[in-house]
Amino acid sequence: QVQLQESGPGLQKPSQTLSLTCTVSGGSITTNYYYWTWIRQSPGKGLEWIGYIAYSGSTYYSPSLKSRTSISRDTSKNQFTLQLTSVTPEDTAVYYCTRGTGAGRSYRYLEVWGQGTLVTVSS
Fold this sequence. Notes:
The protein is an all-beta fold. The protein contains no helices and eleven strands. The strands form two sheets. Strands 2, 4, 5, 6, 9, 10 and 11 form a seven-stranded mixed beta sheet that branches. A hairpin with a 4-residue loop joins strand 7 (69-74) and strand 8. It starts with a strand and ends with a strand.
């Protein structure tokens, strides 16, 4: 079965760039037709969809975060990454990498989740 695991620093200072990596095992990130998706969860905003990189390599981001978000992949390592620039304390959340089955933003598409990693933005 496919498994996803997030990794990256748990503490960030304001204005820095957050970088998280999702390592996928048990399946290829290039397999049709999956959408490798980042979401986050915080007390203030609840569950928030960030964006995805599709099996084809195409990307799509939440309009509210698009200007600061970049999702990329390394197919040789079967990994995909999230970079979020100019972070503020409002970006503090538990970040999840997921596998989705649709190109939309419905959480119903997200069938497999990583365990999540807490990122705290604080000076």
